[in-house]
């Protein structure tokens, strides 16, 4: 039930975000005097609507987004009624059209900023000092968490009858102990713990030095046997090695909370890092198509492949089911930030495409004026339709791939 609730709640959050996106277009257009005839949440058949002034508001049957209709977005639109010619959107100054077309993305950015600021003051934002790669993890002090068992191979699963019990637990080690030596070999960090274990014969009895509450101690235990790849090559050949049955307790907190004022700076830093990561992710999108196809056809799903709103909603459901509300909020922030950036790409039919054309027209008119040549006028959108269809086709195929991958081979952050 909690999983279904989380999926529904996240999907509702997406719907609200997209509805506010369209509301941003509508409100700025109305503020400048443009005519907005319709604002609807959803697509398909109309379930309910009412008209106030010159605008019809309502809800449609398919809750997959929303739209608003601004009269005369392009010179080729034939929806301008007699007497409304001056209110056609394309006749307004380029800066006003830019504000209207960018208002949707600005709304997403606003949601991301506000949600990040709230997160910074409550459960916290990711700590930049938290170890996030193998090198940083291995440099951490060897403070341990006792595992229930030692899994016999590299496949993660819950412990079952027949699995080797944790040698650390058998040796009376406890969560929070710091391993200081194995068979007399000093252990200064987690990397040295792994390296020393790999150099110790599986099934042998080892003398473990440790520190607990500032007091040193030693214990003996028989090491278990498991199968693992080389430490420096996770995809390398799997061999039998020793195991102590422990995990790493990272001393650095993963999340850091802030007061209202410091949260502003933390929000700026966090979203700045997200902007860089988003730019890099968008550059890698083409190379992710084969990885998505590989996942669809039965291969292992790469955690770095894109996800659709379906996949994001499933992850939101997992987060709620595992009481990881901070992850739920981070997904909401990331999705809004990505949608905001994506919509500003200078490609039709995206908002950024309309903005790019408006400024192209302005720049071209300026150049022609300096050359004392007649203004070439507005861009003919009909001539751009083949390019628009190509963008729609590519976007549709990519969306279909991500949705299919999210259904048949979804990314999961928690064991099921």
From TrEMBL:
Swiss-Prot/TrEMBL GO biological process terms: proteolysis
Membrane topology of the entry: Multi-pass membrane protein
Occurrences of domain Peptidase M50 (ranges): 10-364
Cofactor: Zn(2+)
Sorted UniProt keywords: Hydrolase, Membrane, Metalloprotease, Protease, Transmembrane, Transmembrane helix, Zinc
Compartment(s): Membrane
InterPro entries: PDZ_sf, Pept_M50_Zn, Peptidase_M50
One annotated Gene Ontology cellular component of this protein: membrane
Family assignment from sequence similarity: Belongs to the peptidase M50B family.
PANTHER family: MEMBRANE METALLOPROTEASE ARASP2, CHLOROPLASTIC-RELATED, REGULATOR OF SIGMA-E PROTEASE RSEP
Listed name of the protein: Zinc metalloprotease Rip1
Annotated source species: Micromonospora sonchi
Gene: rip1
């Amino acid at each position: 039930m909690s999983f279904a609730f989380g999926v529904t709640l996240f999907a509702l959050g997406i719907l609200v975000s997209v509805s506010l996106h369209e509301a941003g277009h509508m409100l700025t257009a109305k503020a400048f005097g443009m005519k907005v005839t319709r604002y609807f949440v959803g697509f398909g058949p109309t379930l309910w609507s009412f008209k106030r002034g010159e605008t019809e508001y309502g809800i449609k049957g398919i809750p997959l987004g929303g739209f608003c209709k601004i009269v005369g977005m392009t010179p080729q639109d034939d929806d301008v009624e007699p007497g409304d010619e001056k209110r056609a959107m394309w006749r307004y100054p380029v800066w006003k059209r830019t504000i209207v077309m960018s208002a949707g993305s600005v709304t997403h950015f606003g949601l991301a900023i506000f949600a990040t600021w709230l997160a910074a003051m409550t459960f916290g934002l990711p700590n930049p000092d938290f170890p996030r790669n193998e090198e940083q993890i291995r440099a951490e002090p060897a403070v341990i968490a006792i595992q229930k068992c030692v899994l016999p191979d590299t496949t993660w699963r819950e412990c079952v009858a027949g699995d080797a019990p944790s040698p650390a637990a058998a040796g009376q080690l406890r969560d929070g102990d710091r391993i200081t030596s194995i068979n007399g070999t000093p252990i200064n960090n987690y990397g040295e713990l792994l390296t020393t274990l790999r150099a110790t014969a599986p099934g042998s009895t080892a003398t473990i030095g440790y520190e607990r509450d500032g007091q040193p101690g030693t214990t003996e235990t028989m090491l278990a046997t498991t199968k693992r790849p080389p430490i420096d090559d996770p995809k390398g050949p799997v061999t039998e090695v020793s195991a102590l049955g422990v995990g790493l307790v990272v001393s650095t907190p993963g999340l850091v909370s802030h007061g209202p004022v410091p949260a502003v700076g933390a929000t700026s830093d966090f979203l700045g890092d997200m902007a860089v990561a988003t730019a890099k992710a968008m550059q890698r999108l083409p190379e992710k198509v084969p990885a998505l196809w590989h996942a669809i056809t039965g291969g292992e799903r790469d955690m770095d492949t894109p996800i659709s709103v379906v996949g994001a909603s499933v992850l939101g459901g997992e987060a709620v089911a595992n009481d990881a509300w901070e992850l739920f909020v981070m997904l909401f922030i990331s999705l809004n930030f990505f949608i905001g950036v994506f919509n500003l790409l200078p490609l039709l039919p995206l908002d950024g495409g309309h903005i790019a054309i408006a400024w192209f027209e302005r720049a071209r008119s300026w150049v022609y004026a300096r050359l004392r040549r007649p203004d070439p006028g507005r861009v003919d959108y009909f001539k751009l339709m083949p390019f628009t269809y190509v963008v729609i086709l590519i976007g549709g195929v990519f969306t279909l791939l991500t949705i299919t991958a999210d259904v048949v081979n979804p990314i999961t952050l928690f064991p099921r």
